[in-house]
Structures are given as structure tokens and as C-alpha cells.
């Protein structure tokens, strides 16, 4: 990958990785997942939208399944292909400086998440607007005040959103009344097991606004940058 491509990923904050898994393997995992649901009588056990975190979904079979540890999911998470992609993305960060390593780019923690299946003709928007744990409360912590020090001090041009310094020094367990998360979690991804037409599917990307603008929105007399 060229330096220009790496710079584009950093500027946009996202990337599409094609051919992550062989097509045959992805389809086999998808088939095995359906068999796993049937073998464990998912339709008989699942109680409906109120049985999961996503209570706004209305369907006998949800679009986002509260399934975390199926063989298909675990095989994908622990695959060499996944490890290679995670290592590449981790190394986009400035993870070591002045003799201090903020995290090991070649070691990642397995993150268990749900599966999503959208039947043809689905009109539900799925997930509602939300912020993940850490999105708000970490701003209160001394470590993150150092992360965004240049932003707070008005020196925005000096802020590097890909500098990992202090991002791993958070301790949310001292903050009351919040969902706890103690990991450095960046660039959450979605692996697609089956194909779909361009312009459809569960994930979508907006057009690149170009320049330093954020979708043409910027406060007066000040240019904002970040991710």
C-alpha cells in the first residue's frame, strides 16, 4: 500500500477492505451460522425485541441477532486474515514515541459482537442513534485531556488524531453510572459474509467532503480537523 493510500485512510477515517476472506469461506460461515441458529432453536428461545439491547427492532427474527460466540464468529475473529488486517490498521497509529510504547500493534483483543442479517425488502433502520461507552465520559479523565490538549488550547493544527499517546491510560471504572470500557477501541469494522448490490447493505459511506471541511460544516473563523 502506498503512502498516499495510507494518508487517504487517515484523512477519511475509514477504509473498505475487499477480499478479506475467500468467498467460499465467507459463504460457508454464513451457512453454518444459519444452521447454528436452527440447531439451538433460536426462533423458540428468542422472545422478541425486548429480549436484546436493540429494543426498537420489530421482527420475529431480528436483523441484529444477540448471538456472540457461534463457531462461525469465532473462526473469523481468530483467523490469520483478521489478525493481518488488525495489525495493519493498528500500525496506522503513532503507537510509540520517546521510548514509550502505548500499545502493541500486533496484539489485539477479541471483541465479541452480534451478527446482522437483513432479509430482502427490509425497511427498518436497525440501530438508532447512540454513543458507545467511552464516547462521553473519557473526556473527563486526565489522560484524555492530554490527548486533546492542542484542541482545548486552540492549537488545532498541531493536533494529530492518529497519535495514540495517553489513549490507553484511561480508567473508566472510577466513573459512576456508565457502561464500562477499558480498552483502546478504534476503527470498528463490519465483515460482510454475503454480497449485495452497490448502494445497498448494512453499512454506507458518505461522500468525501474534501479539503478540511466536515461535510461543509465548520464554526466561523476556525477550521476544525479530527476524526
Automatic annotation (TrEMBL):
It comes from Klebsiella pneumoniae subsp. pneumoniae. Residues 197-207 have a biased composition (Low complexity). It holds the Pfam family Gig2-like. This is Protein of uncharacterized function (DUF1479). Residues 195-214 are annotated as: Disordered. InterPro entries: Gig2-like (IPR010856), IPNS-like_sf (IPR027443). It comes from the Bacteria.
Amino acid at each position: 500500500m502506498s503512502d498516499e493510500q495510507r494518508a487517504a485512510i487517515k484523512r477519511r477515517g475509514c477504509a473498505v477492505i475487499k477480499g478479506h476472506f475467500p468467498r467460499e469461506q465467507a459463504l460457508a460461515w454464513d451457512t453454518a451460522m444459519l444452521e447454528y441458529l436452527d440447531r439451538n432453536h433460536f426462533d423458540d428461545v428468542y422472545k422478541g425485541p425486548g429480549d436484546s439491547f436493540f429494543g426498537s427492532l420489530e421482527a420475529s427474527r431480528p436483523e441484529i441477532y444477540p448471538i456472540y460466540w457461534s463457531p462461525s464468529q469465532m473462526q473469523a475473529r481468530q483467523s490469520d486474515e483478521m489478525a493481518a488486517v488488525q495489525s495493519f490498521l493498528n500500525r496506522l497509529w503513532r503507537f510509540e514515541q520517546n521510548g514509550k510504547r502505548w500499545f502493541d500493534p500486533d496484539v489485539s483483543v477479541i471483541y465479541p459482537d452480534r451478527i446482522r442479517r437483513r432479509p430482502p425488502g427490509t425497511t427498518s433502520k436497525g440501530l438508532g442513534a447512540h454513543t458507545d461507552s467511552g464516547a462521553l465520559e473519557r473526556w473527563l479523565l486526565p489522560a484524555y485531556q492530554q490527548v486533546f490538549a492542542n484542541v482545548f488550547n486552540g492549537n488545532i493544527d498541531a493536533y494529530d488524531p492518529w497519535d495514540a499517546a495517553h489513549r490507553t491510560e484511561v480508567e473508566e471504572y472510577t466513573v459512576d453510572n456508565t457502561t464500562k470500557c477499558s480498552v483502546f477501541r478504534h476503527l470498528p469494522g463490519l465483515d460482510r459474509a454475503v454480497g449485495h448490490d452497490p448502494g445497498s447493505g448494512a453499512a454506507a459511506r458518505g461522500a468525501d467532503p474534501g479539503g478540511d471541511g466536515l461535510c461543509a460544516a465548520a464554526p466561523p473563523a476556525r477550521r476544525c480537523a479530527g476524526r
